[in-house]
Design a protein that fits this description.
The termini are far apart. This protein has helices at about 15-40, 45-90, 95-105, 110-135, 145-170, 175-200, 205-230. It has 7 helices and no strands. The chain is mainly alpha-helical and about 230 residues long.
Length: about 230
């Protein structure tokens, strides 16, 4: 009997890079736009405003890269340590590890006989991979990459931060604040829409969440700038 092929396109494999990309772009856009909103409300000179925006972009991108690198490197070290531990256990206590794998499959609904047979076959195929995947929940193929995560986060942050910086460069001074707020909220809404579509989630809740937080951040920093700023 010929087996029919049924393809399903799951989206959970995107979770890691999607989280890092959305977090970086969201952080870059909100933090830089909020800083610029406070500065514009304080009415500084143009070169001061531009320098502040450029510094926020560069400093924020480097900070995101460093934070993501350290965080993911720690995760990678933990995953490698778990892998080495499993290697030792498989060498020293192979029968106990086989029993452990059998128990895992029994708890997932297999009969004891079938669970034992599955455990034996998977152990014969690749014991370490079976234990890493089914006992610990990680795969050697999917180990975290610190450098990749750092570069991705820095690039995403810079892309988000570039929006308010471009507004500062091209918008007329008399409508600069309004243009900055509108472009930021529009950019956040677009980011929420894209992230929802890539993750297969409803778009409206994602857009509302991200726009509300952006509005709150810009509102607070704009008020601070207005209160403590000095007209030049």
């Amino acid at each position: 009997m010929k087996r029919t092929q049924h393809n399903e396109h799951h989206l959970s494999h995107r979770s890691n890079w999607l989280r890092a990309g959305v977090l970086g772009a969201n952080d870059g856009l909100i933090s830089t736009a909020s800083l610029m909103t406070g500065m514009v409300a304080a009415q500084p000179e143009f070169h001061t405003l531009l320098l502040t925006g450029a510094s926020a972009l560069v400093g924020g991108a480097i900070s995101m890269a460093a934070g993501e690198y350290v965080s993911v490197y720690s995760q990678a070290d933990t995953e490698k340590a778990d892998m080495e531990m499993e290697k030792r256990e498989l060498e020293i206590h192979p029968e106990e590890e086989l029993d452990e794998l059998t128990t895992i499959y029994e708890e997932r609904g297999l009969t004891p006989e079938l669970a034992r047979e599955v455990a034996i076959q998977l152990t014969a195929h690749n014991a370490l991979d079976a234990h890493m995947r089914d006992e610990i929940g990680i795969s050697e193929e999917n180990f975290a990459n610190p450098l990749q995560a750092a570069l991705s986060s820095a690039a995403a942050f810079a892309m988000g931060a570039a929006i308010p910086l471009l507004v500062i460069l091209i918008a007329p001074i008399n409508i600069l604040l309004a243009t900055l707020i509108f472009s930021t909220l529009f950019g956040l809404g677009l980011l929420g829409y894209i992230s929802a579509k890539l993750g297969g989630a409803p778009a409206r809740p994602a857009i509302i969440r991200i726009v509300i937080w952006g509005a709150i951040a810009m509102g607070i920093t704009g008020l601070i700038g207005k209160l403590v700023g000095v007209t030049v």
